[in-house]
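User: Is it possible to get a 3D structure for a protein together with its bound compound? The compound here is uridine-5'-diphosphate-glucose. I've pasted both below.
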Amino acid sequence: MACPYAFVTLLTSDHYLPGALTLVAALRDIHPSPAISPEVDFQTVCLVTPETVDVSTIKLLRKTFDVVVGVELIAQKDEKGLALLGRPDLNEVLTKLHVFRLTQYSKIIFLDADVLPIRPLSHLFTLPHEFSAVPDVGWPDIFNSGVMVLSPGEDKFSELQDLLKAKGSWDGGDQGILNEWRGNDWNRLSFTYNTTPTAAYTYAPAYERFGKKISAIHFIGPNKPWKSIQFRAPFLSQREHPESSQRAYDYDGLVDKWFHVYDTHYRA
Ligand code: UPG
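Assistant: Yes, that's possible. Here is the predicted structure of the complex:
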């Protein structure tokens, strides 16, 4: 019987590879195989753009994900939104919209490559809603598109393409167009499914109160855990980290969790 569920991520550049590899390892760690219950068995899928990703990277992905799907780049021509976001590097992230074309699955949990799941997520596959996500910390009336539980459909992909042609994306990335498309029609998930430990999230008492319930950490923004590898050398103290003053409460503790998975699986 075909597997109805998939965890899906996206890779459009080689330098996000540590993120994608750590994500898939974490998913397998927290959902040990064989699946406890067959109805929540799943595949891991990576969407990849062969135009911009090296063959050696794709080979590694093929070893670690169940399925690797080559997709065409979808790029934003109007760069105003990305400039406002301060992320001109995200001009190819609209490629994420291809996730709606994976119609061989009935329900998908999409996770950005900079997400670290730390508690089981597979129960989200059986949510009755067509589209679920978590409020964005920068503007909580919209959702963050780094964690989405969705039912795919070619019609949905077409609607998004049409909307993109007609209006463009107001943040230059997928999050702007996806929110424009859904409006208020999305099921709100707990922040613990997409906890964003950036400088924007500075509510330390809430972290102390609810931090133990976090299911997935999302390292949004330009500073990904794998970029900090050079700062983890023992001779560099915390004080010497160029951005330590702007970081979220317990940021280092969360980055340590990411490195624990990365080191366990990929640094023999
Ligand atoms: N990605 C790559 N290579 C790149 C850039 C992005 O593979 O060079 C993929 C990867 O899966 C990544 C995702 O696209 O995780 C999103 O990019 P990221 O840099 O992680 O974005 P965020 O900093 O998380 O920014 C926010 C949202 C994100 C959304 C983006 C643009 O969290 O979900 O895609 O804004 O709307």
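Residues 193-266 form one domain. The CA atoms of residues 11 and 48 lie 5 Å apart.
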